[in-house]
UniProtKB/TrEMBL annotation:
Residues forming the catalytic site: 126 (tele-amp-histidine intermediate)
Keyword Nucleotide-binding: yes
InterPro entries linked: Histidine_triad_HIT, HIT-like, HIT-like_sf
Keywords, alphabetical: Hydrolase, Nucleotide-binding
Alphabetized Pfam families for the sequence: DcpS_C
Short sequence motif named Histidine triad motif, residue ranges: 124-128
Catalytic activity reported: adenosine 5'-phosphoramidate + H2O = NH4(+) + AMP
All residue ranges annotated as the HIT domain in the record: 32-141
UniProt name for this protein: Adenosine 5'-monophosphoramidase HINT3
Organism the protein comes from: Labrus bergylta (ballan wrasse)
């Protein structure tokens, strides 16, 4: 109809505060997560601010499976230093917020963690947030296994980074 503007609204759980321009610093054009955060692929962002973004995993390992990533490109968890501890903690807090917004109230039945290189398919740092962990299938229990050499919990990563010196 003439004179009528279409209002496009974001779902209630989405928080976006981004500029419309393509970022240059902290953006890797070949990185799928950088492209998702930059809204190039049409993926629904459940959270997006200057530091942290969150979206659903395309191959969910649990009824709730989210990926929390830095909005700017950061390498995998093996490349981090002690200076990254606040970022990792903020990623965990964002994961908890997204779970709560999606009616997951039992935070004792969740799994927060990272795949340890070379067992990560995307080199952009990403936190897996899975809930309820008790409902993960056999393969997911294997892929996101605690105390394995391919998966490290967020707490273990923070402890490891805190034990490092101020630089790598």
């Amino acid at each position: 109809m003439a004179g009528v503007e279409a209002n496009v609204t974001q779902p209630a759980q989405v928080e976006i505060s981004k500029t419309g321009s393509v970022p240059t610093e902290g953006y890797e054009k070949k990185c799928i997560f950088c492209r998702i955060v930059n809204n190039e692929l049409g993926t629904e962002l459940l959270h997006c601010d200057e530091e942290i973004s969150c979206f659903r995993d395309i191959k969910p390992g649990a009824p709730h499976h989210y990926l929390v990533v830095p909005s700017k490109h950061v390498g995998n968890c093996k490349s981090l230093s002690k200076e990254h501890v606040p970022l990792v903690k903020r990623m965990v807090e964002t994961g908890k917020e997204i779970l709560q917004k999606n009616n997951v109230t039992d935070l004792s039945d969740v799994r927060f963690g990272f795949h340890w290189p070379p067992f990560c398919s995307v080199t952009h740092l990403h936190l897996h947030v899975l809930a309820p962990a008790s409902q993960m299938g056999f393969m997911s229990r294997l892929f996101y296994r605690l105390n394995s050499y391919w998966f490290i919990t967020a707490e273990q990563l923070i402890e490891l980074l805190n034990s490092k010196g101020e630089s790598n």
